Structures
1.
Amino acid sequence: MPLLEVKDLQVRVEEREILHGLSLTVNKGEVHAIMGPNGSGKSTLSHVIAGKPGYEVTGGQILFNGEDLLEMEPDERAAKGVFLAFQYPVEIPGVATMTFLRTALNAQRKARGESEYSTPNFLKKVRDVAASLNIPQDMLRRGINVGFSGGEKKRNEVLQMALFEPSLCILDEMDSGLDIDALRVAADGVNALRSPDRAMVVITHYQRLLNYIVPDFVHVMSKGRVVKSGNKDLALELEASGYAQFEEA
Amino acid sequence: MAAVQETVDRVRQIDVDQYRYGFETIIESEKAPKGLSEDTIRFISAKKNEPEWMLEWRLEAYRRWLTMQEPTWARVDYPKIDYQDLYYYAAPKPKKEISSLDEIDPEILKTYEKLGIPLREVEALEGVVRPEGERKVAVDAVFDSVSVATTFQEELKKAGVIFMPISHAIQQHPELVKQYLGSVVPTSDNFFATLNSAVFSDGSFVYVPPGVRCPMELSTYFRINERNTGQFERTLIIADKGSYVSYLEGCTAPQRDENQLHAAVVELVALDDAEIKYSTVQNWYPGNSEGKGGIYNFVTKRGDCRGAHSKISWTQVETGSAITWKYPSCILRGDNSRGEFYSIAISNGYQQVDSGTKMLHLGKNTTSRIISKGIAAGKSQNTYRGLVTAHRKAANARNFTACDSLLIGDKCGAHTVPYIEAKNTSALFEHEATTSKISEDVLFYCVQRGLSQEEAVGLVVNGFVRDVLQQLPMEFAVEAQKLISISLEGSVG
Ligand SMILES: Nc1ncnc2c1ncn2[C@@H]1O[C@H](COP(=O)(O)OP(=O)(O)OP(=O)(O)O)[C@@H](O)[C@H]1O
Ligand SMILES: [Mg+2]
């Protein structure tokens, strides 16, 4: 059974159709890259999978491990293993990152009927992951993303991904705003999470990221549909020729 | 902090309908006849066995009250109160004198337990000795109108601190009561304060002698428990020269249909170099989901920094009541004195809050600081009303005010009404105000990470109020944090 199956998905936002019958199948262990011009609907797809309010699904289906994802509340989807690393992570003043991580992790574990982490185990886990991502301890004491640089915000997303151990990771433009070194650190963090039990959907505009996170499949989105799929060479092709060839399609 | 966890768990277990603290204790009570007249006042005074001067004081206030008009300037709206349709006094049936908490009516104790009233009282009950260095808490439990018990009296007595129901202080320390009662909030002050002066039932009295640092937090739990009984608490705290005291007040009330009037008066006096810290967590019944019922909370709280270098700090967490009309204030009379006001006011459902503070700078080099966090959800209205003034002689007066409002949903309102008045050109007053909404993006971020909508709102709101929560004593802060989440339940989705 595929981990994620998006079938003929049609989505409207404020009366305007954005996704016009999009299909995508992702199996465990695979890494899929999604590329496509601005406004083609990449973030919309990731939001609908994660359950963001404000989108109206007018047709199609999303199955996650065979279950109807669209029937679930967003926090339920998170507990079942759907993780979305945001293109624009929000800031939450006054809520220490550490507190947030623990509250969220324990909420997920509780929803799955697992016991809560003990404080020492939790702290150790966070410290280890943070160290591997070059995240200084004092960042964890600050309000979530408050005063973080663009690169720090993205690394904070990867930190959470590592901590929550989701089975589906959707990374929306993880590379935007990262310098070369930060990109490598974040990509290493992501690669460390590749596993036969987990799949990743990597949304990006740049082939460069895919040199670090090498995908099994590359999809090109245009105007709310997947218009072409291929292997990693498709990304190189795009880099050379641009999206123009798909625009008329 | 096992103790703190226990508090959290207890609070979590409380589960009574929408309003988590809605239940009643059945205790026989002794009521004054309905309505207000000189006879009612004589009844109250006689019940309490008061000296003649106290009765006269009350009667004078009552006569004054008859000439006064109910104020209408606050942004609150409620049906006219029929003052003749209320009871002004109710007491649990008198029992034998009690020397410790475990002699209290078990019904009452059960009520406290259901409330999840913390460990410290339970500890007090069981005589648990805390490890050296941990601060202790003394409780003067006010149940309905009569104080039913006082603990830790011995230790306080050793330090020379007087902490007792004000009705006892009138008997035992008449000279102190005569000197200070009404010296901060005069009997003629305002409609509700004057009413309180006439009919006040009970409350706390604290006197800290010169140079004494009160060895424990003083705590009172107020509870309204009689149908149709107005509550008229009267509290008087005096910190003599160079002394320090921290006082905690917390309230909850049972669910009921009729609106209940509550008009308390709190007076604080800080002499030279003295400091008073007064913290409140207020969680009275806010009314049901249609806006029916709920407490009318018309409170006059005022502190007088009477001595040089004195300091008074108010911290309040206001989550309950149908209507709140409350402005804890500081009169900065002594040179170099300081006033502080830290406030979290949460309104949900149909609640109306009009709260804020007054900082009156009279002395030289006086400073004040106001941090107000208003949170409005549901169909509620939340107003911050603040007054900062500098007298002609208040050279170098300084005030900093920050008012932040957070809106949850789009049917509620937040309003900021600052009045600033400087008669001295060297005064420097700063005012900052922000209004924001909890954004969909922030909530979605949290739920994407596994939090429920309600947990997400609780988390964001607790972040918003964090710098005020930090002003509360540790254990209180934990309760308050929990309460904030409880009171916002059902505010989204
Ligand atoms: N809430 C919204 N209201 C109106 N239009 C929206 C909304 N969200 C998305 N859209 C529109 O949907 C289209 C797809 O947007 P989306 O953010 O999914 O694109 P994208 O492929 O992620 O673009 P980018 O590469 O710039 O991030 C755009 O035309 C956008 O304007
Ligand atoms: Mg996008």
2.
Amino acid sequence: MKFPPFTYHRPRSIEEALDLLAEHGDDAKVLAGGQSLLPVMALRLGRPEHIVDIGSIVELATIDVDDDRLRVGAMVRHAEAEGSPRVAERAPLLRAALPHVGHRAIRSRGTVVGSIAHADAAAELPAVCLATNAEIELRSATQSRTINAADFFDGHFTTVAHSDELVTSVRFGTPGTHHAVIEQSRRHGDYAMVGVACQLTIADAIVTSAALAFFGVSSTAVRVAEAEAALIGTDAGPEAIASMRAAVTDVLEPDGDIHATAAYRRHVAGVVAARSIHAALHNEEAAA
Amino acid sequence: MNDLTIPLTMQVNGTDHSIDVEPRRHLADVLREDLALTGTHLGCEHGVCGACTVLIDGEPARACLMLAVQAEGSEIVTIEGLADADGTMHPVQAAMHQAMSFQCAFCTPGFLMSTIALLRDNPSPTTEEIREELSGNLCRCTGYQSIVDGVETAVELMGSDR
Ligand SMILES: Cc1cc2nc3c(=O)[nH]c(=O)nc-3n(C[C@H](O)[C@H](O)[C@H](O)COP(=O)(O)OP(=O)(O)OC[C@H]3O[C@@H](n4cnc5c(N)ncnc54)[C@H](O)[C@@H]3O)c2cc1C
Ligand code: FES
Ligand code: FES
């Protein structure tokens, strides 16, 4: 399928991109890796009149550490983050999620920030943002603001970002000691039917903090505080896992669709949550 | 303003090209129609099947999910760039030929490009790794076993070269 016509812009600086977004607003779309925007256009689910290609803005292609947090710029591709020792060290949950995003040929073009800005309810990286309390850094021609991940995602494919704003980078939160991303999908590399990003901090064999962020179960990724509470203060043994799992199936109210019924999704949410604890505990590499 | 073409300079299989393209056209169409490199196949045109996989600056990518103008300044390798000038097949081509890794062969260019990137980074992958890395390429004919066999044959051929 061919893309509908549009006017193409290739800004060389963030300022130039922001001016274009200010000028064209709702009629413009940012093009990063194109691995979601271009299929959307091919399928005529979207027809932007202006495309602002940020691929030539060199200053957006950086990974750095700011205030002890890993900051990933808007043109850092999935594959680059996957291979970055800094990401592995500072954001091990992000590192664990990346191999689940599509396939290698998708990850060599797609960007970390694009996955977050796109806000697919079944995508892995928004859940990583929630689990690590990431901060989303936005800029428009007139202002800059930073939004906590918990306030950023508004619904399936929607965020609180305005049409004249560029997400310049995302700062991921402090890692725990144990991490895992577990998902169930129809075919390898497909979007998950249900998945979970799990980050635990364990000190002296006791869980001191827990984050469980589920994707594919709601219109955005969601954390389940009741399930996290069931783990905190425990040894994350079989009893704690059982009550955590009960909390997950109690709280989540997924919808059914062509891929899976609601009841199946709810059941599998409990299963992946339990598996994620086992995986996190047994993944020595993931220990910080 | 929509119909304007813009200049594009890229290197394809070692040859420099400077052409004018409409921004809405994807790289696969430009390779096929403007450069007559029809070995890059188009199955789904929305990123799912992998038939259009090419190497962009060494990395495998979907040529249907890239505007041609995004390839500005890039080095691209397509299936036509694999064999030597005298027609000697690339070892991965020879291996897949030997293992009969295809039936209709529509998917084969994409599998070859993905396999070349895989074996460059991981010269002796396990069967599981091969299946994982090639999971983004679909084949409607073979049931995949002969393709995995072909990759394993390539591992042997390339290993014995060293
Ligand atoms: C076959 C296939 C399988 C896939 N499987 C998965 C999967 O399993 N899990 C998954 O998470 N994803 C999957 N994807 C999607 C892929 O991960 C995309 O790369 C990613 O969602 C978007 O990143 P991008 O850089 O390609 O963004 P683009 O496609 O360029 O943009 C996506 C959207 O985000 C906006 N945007 C991008 N960057 C910014 C920015 N800096 N500021 C403001 N807005 C911005 C764009 O305007 C657009 O609306 C798959 C894609 C394909 C084709
Ligand atoms: S034609 Fe490009 S992935 Fe199917
Ligand atoms: S051989 Fe026919 S699609 Fe693969």
3.
Amino acid sequence: MYRVRRWVVRHARVFEMIYRRFEPVLVKLAPVWRRLGHERVEAPVRRVEKAAKGALFDCQMCGQCILSATGMSCPMNCPKTLRNGPCGGVRADGHCEVKPEMMCVWVDAWEGSRQMKQGDLIHAVQLPVDHRLTGSSSWLRVVRQQDASSSSAANRETTR
Amino acid sequence: MKFDDEPVPGYSLPILPGHVSPGRLERVLRAGKFAITSEIDPPDSADPAEVLKRAAIFDGYVDAINATDGSGANCHMSSAGVCSLLTRVGYATILQISCRDRNRIAMQGEILGGAAMGACNLLCLTGDGVQAGDHPQAKPVFDLDSISLLQVARNMRDEQRFESGRRIETPPRIFLGAAENPFVPPLDWRPLRLAKKVAAGAQFIQTQYCFDIERLRDFMLKVNDLGLLEGPDRVFILPGIGPLASARSARWIRENVPGVHIPDAVIARLEGAKNQKEEGKRLCMDLLNEIREIPGVSGAHIMAYRQEHSVAEIIEATGVLEGRVPWYPGRDDPKALNPESPEALSL
Ligand code: SF4
């Protein structure tokens, strides 16, 4: 919901903290996910992820979440699905060019990022979306990635 | 400025050391001259003569011509089509690609095709939303955004790779550009966002219409502080300007064209004038004179929609070319092509 997601962005710092606690837990559970089988857990995890992130961020399940680099404002709610910042059409009052009734997703993102500890991640160039991942769980993807990199380089520090 | 290897129409110039493209725009900018670009409004027609006629209006006054790509989300002849016609007679063109209408497969194909036709400047754009144009019922694509498109284009040129990783045999030798709008929110992010564009590969920037010189000055100061105007990866900035036809049209543009910021003072100035159209031109000249004094500005992009003939007047009156006559078909050999003749197309 629009109102909820804007409230979340105004409290981006809190949600950043929650995420920072939550992610290592998910990753720690990697052996559990592995034992259960990633394919088998994908559907239930996806459902939980969709419900939680849908309610908070109006998440569109792109499958490659970058909320931590966008001030907790989901870029997939931008009518142009821009992932690297605002277009040139933002209205003088900060509202969206395409949907004038909505605040520009990226104006919110900028404000959210200014509150976050790692807010400068917003300056990183984001790669194009991989549309094959649409609808899949971003959480499990992070788990798989970190799991793979920690097992391939056991003696290298892998947390970001 | 004259280059001793000045072109055989339709053929690329040699690439100078430290340059990425064979184009004249890059040469003029890197030589430190004040560059002028302008844009063609592509016709609603399949008539090539119409394109050449529209380009000839700028003869001797511009260093490169942008061919807009469905600007304002309205359908016209494609940018690649216009560029191909123009490069055949030797014009320097800026191919525009907007992310609105094509996915990455189509866009990368277009970059190769454009480069093969001699369109060696590429402007990577997000594009106006479809709601702004004559086909609001169309599917907006936005598979990439302007920044990921820049990065894809740079990798095509420098790494010789498609986005998929597949190898490109002969890479496109292109000078990469992007747009920026320093005049709309979030204002404090805009210079940093420009830095992101430069990091993704932008080498020149054409801005949205500037009617607010203070905002531009502010922006340029910050861009300078960020160190974006120095070194081999520096960016060249060409603010956009244009003549307003009247106070009424200024108001209409402000309400209806996405991203154009026109301060009240500008509208008041037009309203107070006897001849609003003349005043619009004078305002544009004043802006150009002020812009060229701002440290770090490398040129100007003149968008004179439906007033294309005034571009020459604006440039003459301000003297920004400092006596330079940018190349055009027939500049050095008056007997050469008359671009309005059908023979011009049979090269
Ligand atoms: S104004 Fe903001 S939300 Fe709207 S299309 Fe542009 S970037 Fe996206």
4.
Amino acid sequence: MNGEWLPQFLQFLFSGITVGAAYALAALGFTLIYNASNVINFAQGEFIMLGGMLTVFFLQSGMPMPVAVVLAIFIPALVGILIEKLAIEPAKNAEVTTLIIITIGASLVIRGVVQVFLGKGTHSFPAFSGSEPIAIAGATLLPQSLWVLGVAALVVAALGWFFSRTLMGKAILATSYNRLAAQLVGINTSRVLFISYALSGALGAIGGILLTPLTLTSYDVGIMLGLKGFVAAVVGGLGSGLGAVIGGLLVGIIEAMGAGYISSAYKDAIPFGLILVILFFMPRGLFGSKVTDRV
Amino acid sequence: MALLEVSNLTKIFGGVRAVQNVSFAVEAGIVYSVIGPNGAGKTTLFNLITGIYVPSEGQIRLDGRDIAGVAPHELARFGMARTFQNLQVCMNMTALENVMVGAHLRLDRNLFKGALRFPSIARRDAALREEAAELMRLVGLEAFIDAHADAMPYGALKRLEIARALAAKPRVLFLDEPAAGLNPKETSEVDILVRKVADSGVTVVLVEHDMKMVMNISDQILVLDYGRKLAEGSAAEVRRNPDVIAAYLGTHQ
Amino acid sequence: MPRSRFTGLIVIAVVLAVLPFLLPNNFYLDLAIRMMINACIVLGLNLLIGFAGQISLGHAGFVGIGAYASAVLTTHYSWSPLAAMLAGALGAGVLAALVARPIFKLKGHYLAMATLGLGIIISIIVRNEAALTGGPDGMPVPALALFSFEISGEKQWYWVLSGILLLSLWASLNLINSPFGRALRALHGSEVASQVVGVDVAKYKLAIFVFSAVFASLMGSVTAHYVGFVTPNVADFFHSIELVTMVVIGGMASIYGSVIGAVLLTALPQALTGFEGWETVAFGSILMFCMIFMPKGLVPTLAAKFGRR
Ligand SMILES: Nc1ncnc2c1ncn2[C@@H]1O[C@H](COP(=O)(O)OP(=O)(O)O)[C@@H](O)[C@H]1O
Ligand SMILES: [Mg+2]
């Protein structure tokens, strides 16, 4: 051993937790919608894309950064609500497969609209606080990575507070455990849906905005990012918020390690290999509970 | 040797002991009933014997062979059939097809012969159709022979499950509350049907809340309460048992 | 059972027989051929999704295995097209059989995730192994020569595929009304009920998964030979989704629905070329619209409307 392994390992770890944080936000988005409506929203990745692309667009049209960012979070949240109202509610009792196709239809519409108005080009914008790398134990960390991690941690903390301390948060949790019972105790479950989809859109967008200075964005980045967010949500066990966060980080780290040590060409395949292995041994993910189906 | 022997059977769900240390034996050819209040563990007992759940402890013997933990589709080969308290009818099929599925193990199930419609398969299927229609008449569903399952009322579906179970030509038939939700006329029809089945030599294990029916047709009765065996015996014995009376009157400690 | 089950088959046969004489040019013949290829894949997929109730979001992976087996083995290893096609089918079948046991312990969204992952891994392999597959650019495929006879030209392909489609339809109709097919539908309707009558659920799921994978692979080979070129798009996630959409739009658990779904969705992109840039939006909107207003799919919805099942 030449002692060189540590900096390299750290380098992979840094890039792993950075993308992992964005996957975690996407996974939380999946989880919110899954808990509120038992739907896997295949348009989740488009929220990530929208966050990045809209920020680019608003910056280009001369808005200051804070305004651009707020709008780029607000609009995807609105899109989330629209999806819920226009596509999910009317198809309430449809089968899983049907709902999957509906959300895929929604993702195509979003991607198509962006492609028409913002083009097929690849875009970026400057990192929030410069791109002077910070050296840590021989590895380097970009300030933007700190932004990603910091904001993601803040968001997770805020969500934790929201779900444990606010009435609305508790109402959402109650609805996810038992929708009928929640309705019976007077919870407005359609408000719950509304808020879950909005939050989910916002979470995705935040991840997309944070990542863009590091990874660039274009109209079609949503597919892969969204699918990996789905992987992360399943790794942790669908429906578990903690599982989503850990799943996101785990997927990010393993992907970065795999890309670094094994093969960068197969980087995108790694999360999917990982999920297959996990599901083979734990059919409900890492934190999913083991239940006996009632007959 | 009894046909079915259960000893020290226990099933625990999380903290709930749904069945606790239950032992009993069922002789071939009789009607054996299991009664007890809701939540007593009757359905769980059926699920354990028919292989849907794996016991936490204890043995189940069929013809002396230990079958605890054996998969349901394997048990079907040994001549077990059952119905479900909560309907398990295939709503994506016709009523007749539901019954035909019951005969699964008696058919040639080869994929390729089926796809190429070998004459042997076509012939057997035609005969099976007749057989299934006959069974539907037996359980009083002649009006639904051409119906789709999702167009049938609840009472008819309950009997459809019995017809499906009978199509397997079982040696032991487990019926979980076959008369629940039926009107008095339908209930007495099911009563007569169960007798007919028993008379044809099939051993019947019955869970039922209709006491008139249970007391009338059972050769032997097992009473469960909170997952435990409270009493076992003939109808007359069980009726006189003070523990049973206490449990049913609600004065249980 | 009356013969009426096959009425649709006869109608399709007649349509297929007269169609070439009505179509103005090879462009439409080509479209018809691609519809038939898709219809065959979708038939197999519908047995899995619609009849057995097991979703697969990675089926294009199996199509890709067939297409690339035919391309790579004939080009780089000079195998005969028939041997290459069979090797692809064998590979797809073995892969499906290997993953089936663990995958079909999964249900609902977990199953969707696993099949999706499998498909994506296959498509990434195809894209990355450029030395063999030509990478993202794809590679040419020689003509399909069976023994000394070579299929060439739209006309010949049309008749060959008409034969394959009619045979597949007939076999599928038979299958779903055979003991095997009833067991398959029963495990969809109620898994426990089918188990207690003796259906080895895991075995049946495996069998139909392998069957539909092999069929997808064979049709992948056919596509590769017909088009004469193969790109990684055949194995893509998006192609998987297209296939599932054909199943669902035509109608889950509907044999004729598979054909209708394949015809409509193959034609749709052609119909949308006039939208200049808005194709994706239009395509997505149509998917959503169909699924919201006809969640059961076209054929079952219409059949219910006209009082027939
Ligand atoms: N799959 C299961 N998971 C958890 N608890 C169960 C399950 N099945 C039954 N139980 C519990 O076991 C107990 C017995 O239920 P059951 O056997 O259905 O009673 P019965 O049929 O006599 O009404 C109940 O407390 C029930 O809640
Ligand atoms: Mg019960």
